[in-house]
Design brief:
single chain, alpha+beta, hypothetical protein yedk fold, 7-stranded mixed β-sheet, 5-stranded antiparallel β-sheet, 4 helices, 12 strands, globular
């Protein structure tokens, strides 16, 4: 389950860096998180309208814990997530994500060739700053050796665009595996 991820603008993705700079100028009141992003922190998220600041995790009513993930296998049938699947899909840009072993040891995973990952997510409006939850799926590749779940990732620009704009494909896309090659990064612990 994806409960922490990392984002940086230090790579070659100039268009993302510029979009992030513009977003920060548009929202000087919001401190966007760069580096490790934890639940309850505000981070940049991509919607069909562009980059937007959102809070990681969603709280239901007076519940103490935040919902941070939605399972791809059950999201379409969930009273909480199904309405968002139809109208409130987004992508969470990340350089890498963390998963923890049963021994609570953190492992960091990112794209084999570097660059941004685009994790599928759903967002909730209503608050001053919208909330988002990351969609998870059964783990595959290197993450499966550490944890049974991982984020649903859309590697190609075509799949990213379809996730954001093709309402009729959203439910089917929950079960896709686009073959994004991931590697484990060494953590300085």
């Amino acid at each position: 389950m994806c409960g922490k991820y990392h984002i940086t603008t230090e790579d070659e993705n100039i268009s993302f860096r510029e979009a992030l700079r513009k977003l920060m100028l548009e929202h000087p009141e919001i401190q966007l998180k760069n580096g490790d992003v934890l639940p309850s922190q505000i981070a940049p998220v991509i919607t069909a309208q562009g980059l937007s600041p959102m809070r990681f995790g969603h709280r239901l009513g007076t519940a103490k814990r935040l919902f941070i993930n939605a399972r791809s296998e059950t999201a379409a049938g969930s009273p909480l997530f199904a309405p968002r699947l139809k109208t409130s899909r987004c992508l969470v840009p990340a350089s890498a994500f963390y998963e923890w072993s049963p021994e609570k040891k953190p492992f960091l995973f990112g794209r084999e060739q570097g660059g941004l990952l685009h994790m599928a997510a759903l967002y909730f409006t209503g608050a001053d700053t919208p909330d988002f939850v990351i969609i998870t799926r059964d783990a595959a590749g290197p993450p499966s050796a550490v944890h049974p779940r991982m984020p649903l990732i859309f590697g190609s620009p075509e799949l990213q665009e379809a996730w954001l704009r093709q309402d009729s494909l959203a439910e089917e896309m929950l079960h896709m595996d686009d073959g994004t090659a991931l590697v484990e990064y060494a953590l300085a612990v």
